[in-house]
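Each record in this resource describes a single protein on a pair of labelled lines. The shape at a given residue is found from the number at the same position. The record below illustrates this layout:

***
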Amino acid sequence: MARPAGGLAGALVEATKPRITRLVTITSGVGFAMAGLSRSWRAEELALVGGGCVVGTALCAAGANALNQWMERDRDARMIRTCARPLPMGRASPSSVLWSGIGLGVSGTLVLLALCGWVPAALALACIVVYVAAYTPLKPLTPWATHVGTIPGALPPLIGWTAASGGGGIEGLGAAGGWSLYALMTVWQMPHFLAIAWMYKDDYLRGGYRVLPALANGENKTVRSITMWTTALIPATLAPAWAMWGTIGWGYLAVAVPSGALVSYLAWRLIQRRTREAARTVFFASIVHLPVLLLAMVAEGLIRAIG
């Protein structure tokens, strides 16, 4: 089979799930920005630590994603939505993806350790370990894997927060602002991933994954779970304003309240209608909701800092 443009290099990049890697890197950057706004920086220090945070996080996320694709290559081949990935299509060898994943993860951890401190490096390593050694092997065994998967999805803002907190030591973990971002990311992920699972439940069954909507009485269980997480969404959306009041405030709330209310409404509509189309609407709304929140947060923080 002829390889598409980009050859092996392009296939290895694709194996890192670039869109997920980009989201992880952005959330780490937001954590860095929100913590960094409260201290003064020399230009060279900001470039070195900030650049190290972004590059290190991106490398770690890319490595974890590549290792995930290496572990799931046989299951990916059974699913319509993943069968065109590089390993099922033979566009890269399993060993090349495995070693690129290991190399990226190790490199990213070392970059964070050298430029940002041991706590950001430890958090990034924890993301890789939980994603690869817990979340990925649990997916065929239990729908609780989705909950485990929120851990590596929510930790990146804390990587950025601790990197910007002066020295990258343990004191950065004591700030409410960083944990409010962790809580936001945790709660945001659940309706997002449950909507995906609802949309592709038959495909997940083909792959041998135990997602909640595909289980016996799965729709009712999913409705209960979405109800719980949707109830928590608004408080989690507002938590950063409480934890970082003064750095952000009414400007963020003016965006967060209607945005959170819209996603909550669409989730409740999914609960009522129980259709793939309603799940698809929640999925796309959640994709918009998070970047809007993060942009509003950083924008108001910068405006206040400059003013």
